[in-house]
Design brief:
Blueprint (H helix, E strand, L loop, with lengths): L20 H8 L3 E5 L2 E4 L1 H20 L3 E2 L5 E3 H7 L1 H4 L6 E3 L5 E4 L4 H9 L10 E10 L14 E11 L2 H21 L4 E5 L10 E7 L5 E6 L5 E3 L20 E4 L6 H8 L7 E8 L2 E8 L6 H8 L4 E3 L2 H8 L16 E5 L8 E4 L5 E6 L9 E3 L17 E16 L9 E3 L5 E3 L1 E8 H11 L1 E2 L2 E2 L10 E5 L5 H16 L4 E3 L6 H11 L3 E5 L7 E6 L5 E5 L3 H10 L1
Parallel strand pairs: 3-7, 15-17, 17-20, 27-28, 27-29
Antiparallel strand pairs: 1-2, 4-6, 5-6, 7-8, 8-24, 9-10, 10-21, 11-12, 11-21, 13-19, 14-15, 14-16, 18-19, 21-24, 22-23, 25-26, 29-30, 30-31
Helix pairs in contact: 1-10, 2-6, 2-10
Length: 567
């Protein structure tokens, strides 16, 4: 492609409204433009990168047995009403009406559409399993569209849905999808982890998010420094070994702690470490109140509280409710001498506290020398706290470290969540009707492009990995008025294209400085400069990623480029 014939509007200034590196650089290098909040146009270079990302995804999806379809973005409200999501999805769903006043949604996701399609067509177990995918624009009216392509309101997603007669068949496809995702993100050169994510009642093994490690990520990941283990911190199990001190048990007594409310304040006031304090929280569940205890330096994880209590909802009780229940303010409650029937859950670490401190259920008073089992009883010890950096990895290998992550993909076992309410059934081998067992698998294609853009850049511009660079070779004749340079550039342009390289020729009548700055900005992996030594057939080659440059004869050029790209 000749640069004079395409559209690459580069900017010298960093756009003021762009807050992350990827967004700034995509705007500066002329890859994208914003139309309105969270809505973008892809310009020629941006479109090429996007297409390459799509191609990697297509190849791996097809290799894993998924087949491409294209489902409508315009979806009738009735479908969403069947599953109830018309009412529960909230304002993120973009809704509109047709000329007959019928309601529609713009596709935010396609479980309803695909289930309604298959329920009329696939009626026998003999036609299962089936795995279909599409790459298509999704619409979500995000509360905070931001970071450019990372969180848009119209964005490109690859979504796949699989349909099965048995759980084992779903397990098999789920594993294939997980492997396909690993292949995709590896080929894109991303620094990522497959992370165990919250899947509520279904259980941790059935839901993985693929996270690109990045400081601008919105999620926190706990991962092992020496194994593949990685989990969303909300999900990471704690498997720490605690030691009990051999200090003799002392008699329980009360101490005044006026106005000392937080663990830190109470511990400071009494001259003990927070590790000795028992943090007591009151949770309100569907079945009434429960008490949850943890060590003072630990944080209680509400998701784990939900799991252990089996409650659909578990939220912290407010100050009023706590006072009614225990006759004290939130900062002075504890597990000693509780009202009858109040269930107590404690994190494992609490069991190892000796002569600890806990609220006395009296304002401004705490117990000291509190000992579990002697002074209070616990209905169930469980893993209830957030994992911390430095904890042992739950898989037994290494130590936990934290990182921020950008969610680029998600694989999820849906089970019969959609097929049941939508009557998506097939006849099993006994001739009985059963709902399809489903899985779904998403990749944020445009978000992936931004994640790559975030990871592969320096101060001067992009450093695209060759697999998804918009072009492979950038030919830059320094002076278009110089006939020798112009002719050599034309000759090489033709030659390299014959060798099937994707070549961009900077045939603009610009100053050398402008051309070089733009070339760095666009970040095409190989730059070939045609300058003063053109009459001798000598060129300068630059590896954009390493910054390394060398001169070579035109006859050697093809080989040298080949070498450079294969490294
Ligand atoms: P998030 O927690 O980031 O909102 P999500 O859980 O809503 O993501 P899914 O419904 O699982 O996302 O969608 C599948 C994939 O689509 C995500 O893994 C992500 O890569 C991408 N994605 C989701 N929302 C957006 C968005 N607003 N802009 C760009 N990509 C998105
Ligand atoms: Mg979301």
């Amino acid at each position: 492609m000749r640069q004079t014939q395409t559209f690459i509007p580069t900017l010298r200034e960093v756009p003021a409204d762009a807050d992350v590196k990827s967004h700034q650089m995509l705007l500066r290098a002329g890859f994208i433009r914003q139309n309105t909040s969270g809505v973008y146009s892809f310009l020629p270079l941006g479109k090429r990168v996007l297409q390459k990302v799509e191609e990697v995804i297509r190849e791996e999806m097809q290799a894993a047995g998924s087949v491409e379809v294209s489902l409508p973005a315009l979806q009738q409200a009735e479908l969403w009403q069947e599953t109830g999501r018309w009412y529960s999805y909230g304002p993120e769903l973009m809704r509109l009406k047709d000329r007959h006043d019928r309601e529609f949604a713009l596709g935010a996701t396609h479980e309803e559409v695909i289930t309604s399609l298959l329920r009329d067509e696939i009626k026998s177990y003999k036609k299962l399993p089936l795995n279909l995918y599409q790459i298509q624009s999704k619409f979500r009216d995000e509360k905070r569209p931001r970071f450019g392509l990372l969180r848009g309101r119209e964005f490109l997603m690859k979504d796949a849905y699989s349909f099965h007669a048995t759980k084992e068949s779903l397990d098999e496809t789920y594993e294939k999808m997980r492997q396909a995702y690993t292949n995709i993100f590896t080929r894109l050169g991303l620094n990522f982890r497959a992370v165990i994510a919250d899947s509520g009642a279904i259980g941790g093994k059935d839901n993985h998010e693929f996270m690109v490690l990045s400081d601008i990520g919105e999620d926190t990941i706990a991962y092992s420094d020496s194994s593949q283990y990685a989990a969303n911190i909300e999900m990471a199990e704690v498997d720490a070994a605690y030691e009990r001190s051999d200090e003799a048990l002392k008699p329980l007594r009360k101490a005044d702690t006026p106005d000392q409310k937080t663990i830190r304040e109470v511990a400071g006031h009494l001259g003990v470490e927070p590790e000795r304090c028992i943090k007591t929280l009151v949770f309100k569940t569907g079945d009434g109140f429960v008490l949850v205890l943890a060590r003072g330096d630990h944080d209680i994880n509400e998701i784990k509280v939900k799991h252990v209590t089996g409650a659909k909802n578990a939220e912290l009780a407010d100050a009023e409710e706590v006072r009614q229940l225990l006759s004290a303010g939130i900062g002075s409650v504890g597990p000693v001498k509780l009202p009858q029937g109040l269930k107590v859950y404690a994190d494992h670490a609490v069991r190892y506290i000796v002569n600890g401190v806990a609220g006395a259920n009296e304002d401004g008073r705490h117990y000291i020398n509190v000992n579990p089992d002697r002074d209070f009883s616990v209905d169930e010890y469980a893993d209830l706290r957030f994992i911390r950096e430095g904890d042992p990895s739950p898989d037994g290998n290494g130590t936990i470290v934290f990182a921020k992550g950008i969610e680029v993909g998600h694989v999820f076992k849906l089970g019969t969540t959609y097929s049941e309410p939508m009557d998506g059934t097939f006849l099993n081998d006994q001739g009985r009707a059963e709902p399809y067992i489903m899985g779904c698998y998403g990749i944020g294609v445009s978000r992936v492009m931004a994640a790559v853009a975030e990871q592969f850049q320096d101060d001067g511009g992009f450093l695209w990995p060759p697999a998804i660079a918009p072009y492979t070779v950038h030919l830059v004749p320094v002076n278009m008025k110089d006939e020798a340079q112009r002719e050599l550039a034309e000759e090489l342009y033709k030659l390299l294209k014959d060798y099937r390289y994707e070549v961009l020729l900077d045939d603009r009548p610009e100053r050398a400085g402008v051309k070089f700055a733009d070339a760095d900005l666009l970040g095409i992996p190989v730059r070939v400069t045609i300058g003063k030594r053109a009459p001798e057939g000598i060129l300068e080659v630059k590896n954009r990623r390493t910054g390394e440059t060398f001169e070579c004869q035109r006859e050697e050029l093809q080989d040298r480029i080949q070498q450079l790209l294969s490294r």
